[in-house]
What we know:
Elements: E1 9-10, E2 16-20, E3 23-27, E4 32-36, E5 41-46, E6 49-54, H1 59-80, E7 83-90, E8 95-99, E9 102-106, E10 113-116, E11 121-124, E12 130-135, H2 138-151, E13 161-164
Antiparallel strand pairs: 1-6, 2-3, 3-4, 5-6, 7-12, 7-13, 8-9, 9-10, 11-12
Pfam family, one: Ribosomal_L6
Domain Large ribosomal subunit protein uL6 alpha-beta: 11-82, 91-163
Subunit structure: Part of the 50S ribosomal subunit.
Amino acid sequence: xxxxxxxxxxxxxxxxxxxxxxxxxxxxxxxxxxxxxxxxxxxxxxxxxxxxxxxxxxxxxxxxxxxxxxxxxxxxxxxxxxxxxxxxxxxxxxxxxxxxxxxxxxxxxxxxxxxxxxxxxxxxxxxxxxxxxxxxxxxxxxxxxxxxxxxxxxxxxxxxxxxxxxxxxxxxxxxxx
Length: 177
């Protein structure tokens, strides 16, 4: 039995969840998200709760039970509270700034890195060495942060690069004479 799937998802005040066919839609003060439901699970909206149950006892159906419940819970939290991740840039001369709908980063290359900000994502730079990524979709926020990090991941010797706020970088000792 799924330990995640058996718990119903609470719908907070101000959020509307509806199922039309195989599409679940969540609307809240921050936006709207849609999810295509699989045919392996049954999803029902009952009052202020969304319940997910497997259609049969097969392994794929039980696997999708907890996954679907987690996706629905992420959608409900996203449209009511939103998601945000903060990244820190460490390194001499490394900085970032938002210019219109683009994030311009100076990461030690011979040119600036220009990253177009996707639709539904808000990027702010309170400091030149801090990037805050906010959005309704948890997957999209994480994907944007992962793409930004690929430009200059943190290196273990000096710790230079882009890292998540609070992330510990395993430091290595340098070469000895």
